[in-house]
């Protein structure tokens, strides 16, 4: 796991945002991804990236979260049955690729946060996970690839 520094381009996303209790996180993800996929098919949007979970603040017992996909062919502000099209902002970020079970994501985030602190950079306050591989029910969770993205404040 190596941390890299990058500049992200803004991205058009189709997603569902909600504040959910932590124990309901998996059900929210499943529902949001299904709703976005259905909306994309209905509206003619093209899914152009992996599923993501965008955390708008540090989770506690409640999570303020947007889940969806980068899309093409959709206009900002467009909506379809609770799925909103908006922009995920670009800018400087630290990125870490985690390979393995989702159980290891907490440790991966800790490492990314340690790297941020060691570099003397400030996070913007939000962060996201891109689920590069789509885990299969009978697949090996040790093969999951998750891209962790920590946007940085200002001109970092």
Give a quick summary of the entry.
The chain is an alpha+beta fold and about 160 residues long.
Task: State the main characteristics.
2 helices; globular; 41% strand; ten-stranded antiparallel sheet; 156 residues; alpha+beta
Q: Could you please describe the fold and organization of this structure?
A:
With 156 residues, the protein is α+β, with helices and mostly antiparallel strands. It has helices at residues 25-43, 105-118, and strands at residues 3-8, 11-21, 46-47, 51-55, 62-72, 79-80, 83-88, 91-99, 127-131, 145-151. Strands 1, 2, 3, 4, 5, 6, 7, 8, 9 and 10 form a ten-stranded antiparallel sheet that branches. The relative contact order is 0.23. The model has no long low-confidence stretch (mean pLDDT 94).
- The counted number of beta strands is 10
Can you give the helix content as a percent range?
10-25%
Order of secondary-structure elements: EEHEEEEEEHEE
Detail the poorly predicted runs: none
Query: How many helix segments?
Result: 2
C-alpha termini separation: 22 Å
Helix/strand/pairing class, anyone? alpha+beta
Query: Radius of gyration from the CA trace?
Result: 15 Å
Task: Give the overall shape, derived from the CA principal axes.
Answer: globular
Summarize the main sheet: 10 strands, antiparallel
Give the averaged pLDDT, no decimals: 94
- Percentage beta strand: 35-45%
């Amino acid at each position: 796991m190596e941390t890299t520094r990058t500049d992200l381009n803004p991205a058009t996303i189709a997603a569902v945002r909600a504040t959910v209790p932590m124990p309901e996180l998996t059900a929210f993800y499943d529902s949001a991804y299904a709703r976005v996929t259905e909306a994309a098919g209905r509206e003619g949007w093209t899914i152009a990236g992996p599923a993501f979970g965008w955390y708008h603040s540090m989770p506690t017992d409640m999570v303020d979260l947007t889940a969806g996909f980068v899309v093409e062919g959709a206009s900002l502000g467009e909506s379809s049955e609770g799925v909103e099209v908006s922009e995920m902002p670009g800018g400087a970020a630290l990125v870490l690729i985690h390979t393995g079970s989702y159980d290891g994501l907490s440790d991966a985030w800790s490492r990314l946060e340690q790297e941020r602190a060691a570099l003397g950079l400030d996070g913007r306050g939000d962060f996201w996970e891109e689920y590069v591989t789509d885990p299969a029910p009978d697949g090996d969770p040790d093969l999951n690839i998750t891209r962790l993205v920590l946007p940085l404040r200002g001109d970092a």
